[in-house]
Design goal:
Radius of gyration: 13 Å
Structural class: alpha+beta
Number of domains: 1
Number of strands: 5
CATH topology: TATA-Binding Protein
Largest sheet: 5 strands, antiparallel
CATH class: Alpha Beta
Helix content: 25-40%
Strand content: 35-45%
Length: 101
């Protein structure tokens, strides 16, 4: 699953905001029962490992000049929740790019 969210921030600012708020990702996932690990594997890619319902979900967030791309790989067993996850990313993903309070 691939979800692109537009932004008008520079890459450095997006990187800063994602780094500052990455601990909040689990709060945005439906059900609130997930553990999330993040790791910067390159300057513009944050890897994600989400553990939920006894399954591991992998993905990454890529920073581009005008958009942030969330790519999530769901196990076949969880493919039915793809629309729920996509909706959550579209709704709550932009909150990850808001200026820290």
């Amino acid at each position: 699953m691939r979800v692109a969210l537009p932004h008008d921030l520079g890459r450095d600012e997006v990187r800063h905001r994602l780094s500052t708020r990455s601990h909040e990702i689990a709060d945005y996932l439906p059900g609130g029962i997930a553990d999330v690990e993040t790791d910067w594997v390159s300057e513009d890619r944050m890897a994600l490992l989400v553990s939920a319902m006894g399954q591991n979900i992998t993905g990454h967030i890529d920073i581009e000049d005008r958009q942030v791309i969330f790519e999530i790989t769901l196990p076949r067993m969880l493919s039915f929740i793809e629309p729920v996850i996509e909706k959550a990313i579209r709704k709550d993903g932009p909150k990850m790019l808001e200026a820290p309070k």
